Amino acid sequence: MSEKEVLLTKEGLSRLEDELEHLKTVKRREVAARIKQALAFGDISENSEYDDAKNEQAFIESRIVKLEKMLRNARLISEDDIQSEVVGLGSKVKLKDLEYEDEFEYMIVSSAEADPGEAKISDESPVGEALIGKKPGDVIEVEVPAGIVRYQIISVNGRQ
Predict the structure, then answer these.
(1) Are strands 92-97 and 103-109 parallel, antiparallel or unpaired?
(2) DSSP letters along 56-78, please?
(3) Cα separation of 114 and 39, whole Å?
(4) pLDDT digits 0-9 by tens, 9-65
(5) Does 83 have pLDDT greater than 90?
(6) For labelling, which of 36, 47, 48, 103 has a CA lying 20 to 30 Å from the CA of 78?
(7) Which domains are seen in the chain, by residue range?
(8) Using an 8 Å Cβ cutoff, are 125 and 50 in contact?
């Protein structure tokens, strides 16, 4: 079975590579030092410092494996891949909330680099999925946890 291709922006690829490097060079050493220190306390059967450090080590190693797999299957989205007037992966989309008249901008990215705090939403999220293939002027209606929202697409990649 072939592994799923992970589409990434240049920025997303760089961020994942940086995270992997940090985990391998900094976090692994830190947690190894904590384990060594906890072992120095003696009996590990009731040693919460040891248990915490081992749990963190397992999380770090799991994340390293996940990042290595993502990067191994990564394909960079080039500017040519981004359709100018149709929403796709890598598109910057300006939306207007039709109920509250608010305007905001999202970048559509893969789930591997989604970060709502940075206005990067996954193409697999309800809003991201509804936007794919749409053009400026189109209206989407999406069911989200807070209810149904309606957005009008103002522009895609700066084009109205």
Answers:
(1) antiparallel
(2) HHHHHHHHHHHHHHHHHTEEEPP
(3) 38
(4) 888 899 999 999 999 999 999 999 999 998 887 777 777 889 999 999 999 999 999
(5) no
(6) 103
(7) 6-76 (1.10.287.180), 80-156 (3.10.50.30)
(8) no
